[in-house]
Design a protein that fits this description.
It contains 9 helices and 14 strands. It is α+β, with helices and mostly antiparallel strands. Strand 8 and strand 9 form a beta hairpin.
Length: 451
């Protein structure tokens, strides 16, 4: 804020001090700005039309309001200062009590027709209603602008990316023969001042504000352009916590599922659940990234490769489960012969042919000369105790033992079947391939993100 105090000049006349009171209105009357301001605001403020008007522009960054990747829109809040010389305005401050600057409504004087190429939405921030006029004819105009501009973004390294968005300032109709546009500060000063006045940055960290002066030719005429480039780096912590780590955790769960028994159905259902969870995260990623990009984002490659590895893991589990079920179905087939025994006479009698079961490696073999132990009593012993009062309970216990022996034999056959051995080899080889691929891919993707 600039202050314009009323100055009192003490004049000594005949030894008696008198006070001369000055006001800003006296200056405006002297400049003829209180009657008709047409000559001051209609045309360029030069006495010789062949001389260009020199305009200096300063832009500082107040805040980064938003950077929208989906629509590739950059919304900064900037402070712009324009300075030019009005050759029809000048006065001697000593004649007006030392008044060297006057603030007047901006509609009273000519202003440069400056516009921003990338701006796609009208500025709705409050407009400063005054401009500052100095005694030598220098005009200062200060404005706060909320700029909604387009920005070509490269999201290849999202969320570890660095973006650079431009704001190109130029005159609408005045070419270099009529108006020259120069930066008021260089890149280092603009960056330093922007860091001092920065209010908020949000998700982004401000790096640098660079200023470049260029010319553009059109219809045999040349215009001055000032390009302000805002460089900023994304703060990736939120995306790492909400997206990258959950995908990595699902991958660890998928690796841990290799320790679940293959002949059970829980492993297959577990892998399908993890795969569906990754699909939900891919839908979230689709809402973040823009539809069009020059290169495939690394985060999309990260998710697709993780999804593909989990899909291969699911297919491998289906193959291994199929091999195990095939072997169990073949070995668990009952080998019963037709007998003339009437099954309706005694439902609890054991068929002697059921003793013909294939032995497996988990059943201990007895040495030569020793008698092999029978796990279950024969049917004659069952008939001998069938008259006792606890015969029904014993028969139930014997039935449970019979079922346990069948399960033991099936598990032992599962370990020794050809299909099961093949399934184990496939499982072991795929686990080594899976772990190696995940390790190499994670190393590659994180190196790409940080280079």
């Amino acid at each position: 804020m600039r202050r314009f105090p009323l100055l009192l000049l003490i004049i000594f006349a005949d030894g008696v001090p008198t006070k001369k009171v000055c006001s800003y209105l006296d200056v405006l009357d002297y400049l003829n700005l209180t009657k008709d301001t047409g000559p001051f605001r209609l045309t360029r403020p030069v006495l010789d039309y062949t001389q260009p008007t020199i305009v200096e522009l300063d832009i500082l960054l107040y805040a980064i309001l938003a950077v929208v990747e989906k629509t590739q829109t950059f919304i900064p809040f900037i402070w712009a200062t324009l300075k030019w010389n009005h050759e029809r305005i000048s006065w001697d401050p000593d004649q007006f009590c030392g008044i060297s600057e006057v603030a007047i409504p901006r509609e009273m004087l000519w202003k440069p027709d400056i516009f921003i190429y990338e701006m796609i939405q009208k500025d709705d921030s409050p407009l400063n209603p005054y401009i500052l006029v100095s005694s030598n004819g220098t005009i200062y105009s200060e404005e706060d602008l909320k700029v909604v501009s387009t920005c070509k973004m490269d999201v290849h390294k999202f969320p570890f990316d660095t973006q650079s968005c431009n704001i190109t300032v130029a005159s609408a109709i005045h070419h270099i023969d009529e108006m020259r546009l120069f930066p008021g500060s260089n890149s280092s000063r603009a960056t330093q001042f922007s860091r001092q006045v920065m209010k908020t940055q949000g998700e982004w960290e401000f790096l640098q504000l660079s200023v470049t002066s260029t010319n553009i030719a059109f219809n045999n005429k040349t215009w001055d352009n000032l390009i302000y480039t805002f460089s900023m780096k994304r703060r990736p912590l939120l995306h790492v916590i909400n997206f990258l780590l959950p995908v990595l955790f699902f991958l660890i769960l998928d690796l841990a599922s290799f320790f679940i028994a293959d002949h059970r159905g829980e492993k297959l259902g577990f892998k399908v659940t993890v795969l569906l969870a990754i699909s939900v995260l891919l839908l979230i990623l689709n809402d973040i990234l823009p539809a069009m990009s020059n290169e495939t984002p690394l985060i999309a490659t990260y998710c697709i490769v993780m999804f593909a590895l989990m899909l291969l893991s699911l297919l491998e589990t289906i193959l291994v489960t199929n091999l195990i079920d095939k072997d169990l179905t073949f070995q668990a087939r009952p080998r019963l012969k037709d007998t003339k025994t009437d099954m309706n006479t005694d439902n609890w009698k054991t068929d002697p042919d059921e003793k013909r079961q294939t032995c497996c490696s988990c059943i201990h073999k007895v040495s030569a000369g020793e008698k092999q132990l029978e796990l279950l009593p024969v049917a004659e012993e069952v008939n001998g105790i069938s008259q006792s009062r606890d015969s029904h309970v014993l028969l139930l216990i014997l039935g449970e033992l019979k079922e346990m022996q069948m399960n033991l034999n099936l598990n032992c056959r599962m370990e020794g079947g050809k299909s099961v051995l093949l399934a184990k080899r496939i499982n072991r080889a795929f686990f080594i391939f899976y772990v190696s691929t995940v390790f190499l891919f994670l190393c590659f993707i994180f190196i790409e993100w940080h280079t």
